[in-house]
Amino acid sequence: LHYHCISLPLLRQACHTSPHARPRFVVVSSVCGTIGMPGLAGYCASKYAVEGLTDCLRREMQHACSRVKIVLVEPGLMRTGLYDTIGESRVDELYSKAPAEIQLAYGRKFFQETTLQLRKNLQDLGSHPRVAIDGIVHAAMARWPKRRYGVGYDTTLFYLINMLPWALQDAFFGLAMPCPKIANEPTTH
User: Fold this and answer.
1) How far apart are CA 88 and CA 75, in angstroms?
2) CA 54/CA 22 separation, integer angstroms
3) Nearest-5° Cα angle at 128, 177 to 157
4) What distance in Å separates the CA atoms of residue 8 and residue 57, rounded to the nearest whole number?
5) Per-residue pLDDT tens digits for 109-124
6) What is the DSSP code string of 43-105?
7) pTM of the predicted model, to two decimals?
8) How does pLDDT run across 27-79, given as a tens digit for each residue?
9) 106 and 183 in contact (C-beta within 8 Å)?
10) Which of 82, 97, 119, 126 keeps 20 to 30 A from 90, CA to CA?
11) CB half-sphere exposure, 87, CA atoms < 13 A
């Protein structure tokens, strides 16, 4: 949000001082800003917020100066080494730092399975980071940029899943991702 507050006045100024300027603001989010996934609630929520803010800014700027382009880049899984360092000891550390209610409700097994599944998805569907870089460069340099750029092998899959009815999306993620085994509510006597 801080960068938006700094950049928007500069974009407006560029738009009004030079009639030929085509100012552009490229925002990098994630495909997780388009679809929620088990085990990634906090990350997905933050990316949904980025997506909403970007859509609002783009629509507001259309009226202020139609030449200002607000472009969103949504990378999918990238083989960056992020999960290479997450071994069993790191999973145990994350689990031990979680509030007791989360530990009870989700269990250690969910933390372990989610990490293993993310690693597998990264190996099977992850793209080289160069794909994201190319998408960002294209978004910044194209004469007529798209509003959104999905970059990575998995983004098309997630866009298609996102078009399914909610029940089918839920069924897909129930099969494809580990889901927590929520503990039963304690009974009162």
Assistant:
1) 27
2) 18
3) 40
4) 9
5) 888 888 888 888 888 8
6) HHHHHHHHHHHHHHHHHHHHHH-TT-EEEEEEE--B-SSTTTT--HHHHHHHHHHS-HHHHHH
7) 0.81
8) 999 999 999 988 888 899 999 999 999 998 888 888 777 778 899 999 999 98
9) no
10) 126
11) 2
